[in-house]
Amino acid sequence: MTSHGPIAGSFRDPAGQVHTAGDCIFRTVSHYGAPNFKDTLKTGLLDRFVERGDLVPFREVRDPPTLALFPNAAHVLEHPRLAFISHPYEWTFPLLKSAALFHLDLALDCIDNDIVLSDATAYNVQFIGTRPIFMDHLSFRPYVEGEYWTSHRQFCEQFLNPLLLRHCLDLPHNAWFRGTLEGISTQDLLRVLPVSAKLSLRMLLHVVLPGRFQRKATATPGERPTGIADRKPLPRAAYRGMLRQLRDWIADLRPRGDAESLWGSYAKDNSYTGLETSIKTTFIEKFIAERRPELVFDLGCNTGFFSEIALRAGAQRVIGFDFDQAALSGAYQRARDRNLDFLPLYGDAANPSPSQGWHQQERLGLSERARADAVLALAFQHHLAIARNIPLERIVDWIVPMAPEGIIEFVEKNDPTIQTMLAMREDIFANYSRETFESILATQARIVDRCEVMAGSRYLYRYRSHDIP
What we know:
Elements: E1 4-6, E2 16-21, E3 24-29, H1 34-42, H2 45-51, E4 59-60, H3 64-67, E5 75-79, H4 93-111, E6 115-117, E7 125-128, E8 131-134, E9 140-142, H5 152-169, H6 174-180, H7 186-192, H8 201-219, H9 236-252, H10 266-269, H11 274-291, E10 295-299, H12 305-313, E11 317-322, H13 325-337, E12 342-346, H14 366-369, E13 374-377, H15 381-385, H16 392-399, E14 405-411, H17 416-422, H18 434-444, E15 446-454, E16 458-464
Parallel strand pairs: 10-11, 10-13, 11-12, 13-14
Antiparallel strand pairs: 1-2, 2-3, 3-5, 4-5, 6-9, 7-8, 14-16, 15-16
Helix pairs in contact: 4-5, 4-9, 7-8, 11-12, 16-18
């Protein structure tokens, strides 16, 4: 273990940083962060969170060779590498809501044990399947009697405000959150909310009044702002009551107008017959059972039907991507109800999450975060080729490097779905054909199996990278 380096997304925390060294993940605790870490560790709360699966497991490193890699650290922790890191702008409404409730439950447990969470960033929450888990071991510190919840604003901007955007206006938070990275500011939310949405007591306490205070603070730069030291002590019961009130409110939030979309109902309203679905399922099951991949990317996962097939056949976990919010809500419900290690994320394949933030390294893009062991691209590529005008060679060149092997479904132009796409536009796709697709795929990988799913219309291609047997 000679080479190591800090993970860019952790550099802002003065209490410590996360590092990679070989296949290991280490968290250094600085001398600044050491007192809070040691005091929290003594309570046994971190161990209890680990035992119930709410906190990433950790151990304190004692061996001198590893400690020598981090000479300036007061403590060094090692914890397992998470299979995939997602960002809150990739989460759907139910995932973001689940993460918000999880964070508040942790905060309530903490205050009951004389501990508080020092921040409320959504980036501290990750998912194993659809189950949230906290990954920042240095966000805990002892509670100070009479203190305020200083991260209330951060919680609202990264959890509450994005949820309210969908709840009040039926606007998904994803593009807005991705464009700002630190969430949706309260002042911006107030600009788009109708007056009728601002009239509740909860909205007044957590959105309207905080927005006014923020606006006043920035509008009068010459005045000394009211600081924490100027406030009267806040009783512990009031601190806890604020957390409880927010939790009850968020638990009741629902997306506005959450009707099924065209692709959200695709799983039960598609053109496949029972036999064709069976052919497709068997082809996928054979591939997964033979290779038993640890991580599968399901591109265009829809409601997760074939993600579940892959898991049942032997895949360890599946990360699904789709652009349809209603379909993803169905996928979330499937994963949660059936306890699947399946995480359905929002993703526009024509505009995937980029690397961004400080030095364009703080929040890594999709291709920099993980490489899957297998990829499924089922009834997917024609949406890029026909609906988004992306040439077949570019689609194949994007999909194949994601994993050493996988399955791509090709849909002929005579298919009813493509005919629907072409009904209101000119057919400019002279090079879109199965023969062209096969030729392009063969230059990128070996085609090891193929299957006709729907006569003369839909075909499955199983491919494998040239450098694996």
